[in-house]
Amino acid sequence: MKATLDELLCSVELLEGDTAILDVINKHIFDQTQAQKSAFFVADLGAIVWQQIRWKTHMDQVRPFYDVKCNSSAVVVEILAALGTGFVCSSKHELELIKNFGVPAQDVILGGACKQLSLIKYAAKHGVQLLVCDNEAEMRKIARCHPNAKLLLQVYTAGCCEHDETAMPFGCTLKDCRHLLECAKELGLTVTGVKFHIPSCCAEPEAFTHAVSDARCVFDMGAELGYAMSILDVGGGFDGVEAQLEKVNRVLKPMLDAYFPQSTGVSVIAEPGAYYVSAAFSLAVSVISKKMATQNGNNHAQDTLSGIDEPEFTYCLNDGVFGSFAYKLLEESVPVPSLLKETSAEEPLFSSSLWGSSNDGLDQVLESCLIPELSVGDWLVFNHVGANSLRVMGEPTPLVHYIISAQDWYEIQNYGVILDTALKNFCLVPCFQKPSLSESAISTPA
Ligand SMILES: *Cc1c(COP(=O)(O)O)cnc(C)c1O
Fold it and tell me: How many Å lie between the centroid of ligand 1 and the Cα of residue 113?
């Protein structure tokens, strides 16, 4: 599928003055007719650019390759391409997408532990040489279809996320590495580096200590077999919070200086995904139905004793786990939403659960949160939902409205980021004016 220029042309609203994201959300809700009322995203492009500026500030020695699977919006890809990041793709669709933005093939990694032959062939045809590999079967496929590939051996990081039974042990052990290096040698393949990945759930910075020293072992094993490896890929797992980036860097930097000093000529790269997009996206959803139950069910005796009969609410939303909340299936937590309508501080809070509209037991967005009572038609806003929320799982993904504040637009220029020349497929639309209260009251549809 080749996107046409029209599809890629995207309007970005420039927000002047003190217009906030919530004003934009209100405007779009207001614009929707009563019948439509669809969920939608608002994406703040300034937030993505600031993440790049923060990365440069704290991790300048590590070149980021954005993991496209995290959020493959064309606008996100175009901005990051303009900012000069590399990309990690794991499907043909993702490779085609970044090709549309003229990203050079040497700035692309074909990730994913298991790749279909056709995908490997596609990468070979388009000159994408960096391929991640962690097993012999995969290596044999690559040797057959892409003999000029440059492999990044994905090494399993021991001791990481042992508490998480759902963590998939991608990557090979150090022992497997020797075998894989020998196998590559026999197949005439080039091994160009080592990759590890420490998920953000692994809060122990020590995991990086182990991973970097393990990587050094693999570089040394490779050297014994005549491989001059030149890339160390420290993976993703950066949640986007600046403090976490600093914390990782405090552990990573001395390890890199000790094991991979600049004199070795090794390029250090990373594969951040969530880091760039998480905070930039907010999702607005509306309540489409509502049920009330009392907390203690039929247990009247207890109710009378405690003197309370707290109602509990179950709300059904116009988006769910089979839509924009699919990341919940990745064991990621859904943030507590904020309420769009004004509520007073005295308003009582009720235990509430939020569901998608599929009637499926898996479609529970939030098991329990304490919020004021909602009515059908009320809107909720989930912030920090840019990662893994725009995947298609049967339902069409909600519309995304892109914005950037005038302040960000000008401030980022001080950092050498000039978006209007770098972004060919953007059209910046005249600033969105915060509507005055009287104006919106007059034109409210009956
Ligand atoms: C998804 C993924 C990443 C990016 O992860 P984030 O947590 O979004 O940074 C990096 N490496 C691998 C192997 C992945 O699967």
Answer: 12
- φ, ψ dihedrals at 216, nearest 5°: -60, -40
pLDDT tier at 295, thresholds 50, 70, 90: low
Task: Quote the Cα angle for 162-163-164, to 5°.
Answer: 90
Show Cβ contacts of residue 135 under 8 Å, excluding neighbours closer than 6 positions.
113, 172, 176, 180
Q: What is the pTM of this model?
A: 0.89
Residue ranges in 293-436 assigned as alpha helix (H): 300-306, 406-411, 419-422
Nearest atom in ligand 1 to 90's CA: 15
Q: Each residue of 247-262: pLDDT tens digit?
A: 999 999 999 999 999 9
Rounded to a whole number of angstroms, the CA Rg of the chain reads: 25
**Range(s) within the chain of domains with CATH label 3.20.20.10:** 46-277
Residues paired with 88 in a beta bridge: 67, 109
**Measured in angstroms, how far is the CA atom of residue 445 from the centroid of ligand 1?**
45
Q: Which CATH superfamily is domain 8-43+278-401+438-442 in?
A: Lyase, Ornithine Decarboxylase; Chain A, domain 1 (2.40.37.10)
CA distance 130 to 110: 6
> Which residues contact ligand 1 via a Cβ below 6 A?
67, 69-70, 111, 197, 199-200, 235-238, 271-275, 387
The answer for residues whose C-beta is within 8 angstroms of residue 32's C-beta and 6 or more apart is: 38
Q: How open is the CA angle 417-422-428, to the nearest 5 degrees?
A: 95
3-state secondary structure of 441: helix
Counts for the chain of helices (H) and strands (E), in that order? 15, 18
The CATH architecture one would assign to domain 46-277 is: Alpha-Beta Barrel (3.20)
CB 317, CB 365: distance < 8 Å: yes
- Spatial separation of the C-alpha atoms in residues 57 and 243, rounded to whole Å: 12
Task: Single out the catalytic residue among 13, 78, 94, 271.
Answer: 271
Q: Where in the chain is the domain with CATH 2.40.37.10?
A: 8-43+278-401+438-442
Active site residue 126: no
State the pLDDT confidence band at 136, using cuts at 50, 70 and 90: very high
197 is catalytic: yes
pLDDT at 7 over 70: no
C-alpha to C-alpha distance for 391 and 355, rounded to whole angstroms: 18
C-alpha 161 to ligand 1 mean position (Å): 14
Residue 416 makes CB contacts below 8 A (sequence gap 6+) with none
Burial class (CB in 10 A: 0-12, 13-18, 19+), 222: buried
